[in-house]
Design a protein that fits this description.
Layout (H helix, E strand, L loop, with lengths): L7 E7 L2 E7 L7 H80 L2 E7 L4 E4 L1 H6 L7 H6 L10 H13 L8 E9 L5 E11 L8 E8 L1 H54 L3 H34 L8 E4 H16 L3 E6 L6 E4 L1 H17 L5 E12 L13 E10 L6 H6 L17 H11 L3 E7 L3 E9 L23 E5 L3 H13 L3 E5 L2 H10 L6 E5 L7 H10 L6 E5 L14 E4 L4 H14 L1
Parallel strand pairs: 9-11, 15-16, 15-17, 17-18, 18-19
Antiparallel strand pairs: 1-2, 3-4, 3-7, 5-6, 6-7, 8-10, 11-12, 12-14, 13-14
Bound molecules: adenosine-5'-diphosphate and magnesium ion.
């Protein structure tokens, strides 16, 4: 039987289609059936709920995800842009770093500097390539110079270097950063010596490296040499002023001593002729020979003051165009006699003439002094070479003429293979009175005279010496070209003629004034005296008749000789003036105005000859 609880489904065919009829009990399913179906219904409800929930959460999740992704994407984009920027900055920084490196390299190169690092813990030095170049060492010496650099530095500098390093390590010093500085000499592998300056700063240690000193090294050899030259020339200047001052005063005294001694000699000779008794005649003869000794000693003294004046460049000299080769030929025979037989003198002169503007006597003096020194350095014989040459310096002069200015130079070389000099002797050799020779053997004026004469002529002296090897002295004087200008002429021999002319003697030193007056009076001149330029002017303007000649000292208090000449010219008087001085003190002597000059000390004869010559010319 059909279950009445089941619904009934019936299909009915109707004229225009199908009907479906369904029928079911109105009061639901029987309890039995309902019980069977409950779990299924609950389950499907739950499932539906689950599905709905799942769908919902899924939807929510999806939305979140989309949001997150888009947020993430923009984060990434930002980060990317940031990265781009950073890369750009980094690139620019790198470029700048490279530029700075290059700039530093250029700066180090142009400053002739190198860099170094000193590892204070390991005691190891690291040199840059530039530093190695400054040290004059090949790259393969780097290792060795890192370990025992001090071996190439003379011991006298070690303590200064060590204490500079200690000070930097301890961190004291003046600057805000611990630093060290030191100057020292360094012997290059090729034996050359350089003066170096090193300075560095302390860098604290990091995890990469320990504490170290980092710094630069500079070659200061040239600066040192210039400093030494300057010091030397300042010293010479000071000593020259002193020596020149003494020599000037001493010359005045010598002129008086020599002059009076010679006058007394004449007097004694004249008296001897009139002598009545043999005793008197003998006595006068003795007096005359004693006076002779005074004159000889005075002449030696005057040679000495002459040398001093040459050194202090105060000597009055008459520069003319001189061929140095000619001077060498003139003195050669004398030199051979001077140096004796155990020493050979080898002379060679340049084939072309070597004109310089100088006093020929002074050039001879330079050569003689140098050759005598060479002889003294060869106690047991040897060889002395004397050479002359023409040297053209274009740009930077090299040894042995380092520091010589560009131009054409006449060079005199005197070389010996004698004892040589130590650095201490070389430092003082130009000082007047410095000598290593025994009393009576050396005056210490030889090289100082050479120095003075050469400096006055605008030249330079270069000395190279090694103990046990020998010495070479190079004297460089500017070549005098024909175009360099006119040359003052030497004076000619005056005709012998007595004269009764009137002479005004102007001299501040009373002894000398008296002597000159005496000499001239004895020769028949009418003499007036004045003790300085002002007094002379008064005498000139108040006197009835102006004198025929003024004989005047150059350096005097109140009014000097040069100023006196100017005053005379201003007053329209044309009186020839004869200047006498051992010390022109840089005053240009007015030779061109018809005045002449006589150097002190002079002999009575020389004075009279000059006076006469000037009067003749007037
Ligand atoms: P002096 O010759 O009277 O001593 P110098 O001024 O001529 O004075 O020389 C000074 C010093 O220089 C000498 O005493 C000597 O020690 C040294 N000297 C000069 N020339 C030479 C040389 N050619 N060789 C070695 N030493 C020299
Ligand atoms: Mg000498």
């Amino acid at each position: 039987p059909p279950n009445l609880e089941d619904p009934i489904r019936v299909e009915v065919r109707v004229p225009d289609g199908n009907w479906r009829l369904e029928a079911a009990p109105t009061r639901g399913w029987s309890a039995e059936v309902a019980d069977d179906m409950r779990p299924t219904r609950v389950a499907s409800g739950l499932i539906a709920l689950l599905v709905i929930w799942l769908t919902y959460t899924q939807l929510v999740r999806q939305q979140d995800l989309t949001q997150a992704v888009s947020a993430r994407t923009s984060d990434l984009e930002r980060a990317n842009a940031e990265l781009q920027r950073e890369v750009g900055t980094r690139q620019r920084a790198e470029e700048r770093l490279k530029e700075n490196d290059e700039r530093l390299r250029l700066a180090l190169n142009s400053g002739r500097m190198g860099t170094w690092e000193y590892d204070t813990a390991q005691g190891m030095l690291y040199w840059s390539a530039q530093a190695m170049a400054i040290l004059g060492a090949p790259a393969e010496d780097k290792e060795q110079l890192g370990v025992d650099f001090l071996r190439s530095v003379p011991a006298e500098f070690h303590e200064a270097i060590r204490s500079a390093v200690r000070q930097a390590k301890r961190g004291d010093g003046d600057g805000p950063v611990p630093e060290c500085r030191a100057e020292f000499r360094f012997t290059m592998p090729n034996g050359g010596e350089r003066f170096l300056y090193a300075s560095g700063e302390l860098q604290e240690g990091t995890q990469d490296h320990g504490a170290r000193l980092v710094g630069v090294i500079v070659d200061i050899t040239e600066r040192r040499q210039l400093e030494e030259q300057l010091l030397q020339s300042q010293k010479m200047e000071a000593v020259g002023t002193l020596a020149g001052g003494i020599a000037h005063d001493f010359n005045n005294l010598l002129t008086a001593i020599l002059g009076f001694a010679q006058l007394s000699q004449l007097q004694a000779a004249a008296l001897k002729l009139e002598g009545t008794t043999p005793e008197l005649r003998d006595g006068l003869e003795e007096l005359r020979t004693d006076l002779d000794e005074i004159v000889k000693a005075g002449e030696r003294a005057s040679l000495l003051t002459g040398q001093l004046l040459a050194f202090s460049r105060r000597q009055v000299h008459k520069p003319t165009r001189v061929d140095v080769n000619g001077v060498v030929r003139e003195v050669e025979r004398m030199l051979v006699r001077l140096i004796g037989e155990r020493i050979t003198l080898e002379t060679s002169t340049a084939p072309e003439p070597l004109p310089v503007l100088a006093d020929p006597g002074q050039i001879a003096q330079v050569i003689v002094n140098l050759v005598v020194n060479a002889r003294d350095a060869l106690p047991s014989g040897g060889e002395v070479k004397l050479r002359t040459l023409r040297v053209i310096v274009t740009d930077a002069a090299e040894a042995p003429f380092a520091g010589l200015a560009a131009g054409t130079w006449v060079v005199i070389v005197v070389e010996d293979n004698g004892t040589g000099m130590t650095a201490e002797v070389m430092a003082r050799m130009f000082e007047p009175f410095f000598t290593t020779k025994r009393v009576g053997e050396g005056t210490g004026l030889g090289l100082s005279t050479v120095y003075g004469i050469v400096a006055q002529g605008g030249g330079r002296v270069f000395v190279h010496s090694a103990v046990g090897v020998g010495t070479s002295v190079h004297v460089a004087l500017p070549l005098h070209s024909a175009a360099s200008g006119a040359v003052p002429r030497g004076d000619e021999q005056p005709p012998q003629q007595p004269s009764a002319a009137r002479v005004l003697v102007v001299e501040d030193e009373p002894g000398l004034r008296r002597l000159v007056a005496e000499i001239l009076t004895r020769r028949g001149y009418a003499v007036e005296v004045a003790s300085d330029g002002l007094e002379a002017l008064t005498a000139l303007t108040e006197g009835a008749r102006p004198p025929d000649l003024v004989l005047s000292d150059v350096v005097m208090p109140r009014l000097g000789g040069r100023a006196l000449a100017d005053e005379i010219a201003k007053r329209g008087m044309s009186i020839p003036i004869l200047f006498m001085s051992g010390y022109p003190a840089g005053e240009e002597l007015p030779e061109d105005e018809g005045h002449t000059f006589i150097g002190k000390p002079f002999t009575p004869d020389a004075l009279v000859r000059k006076v006469r010559a000037l009067l003749e010319r007037a």
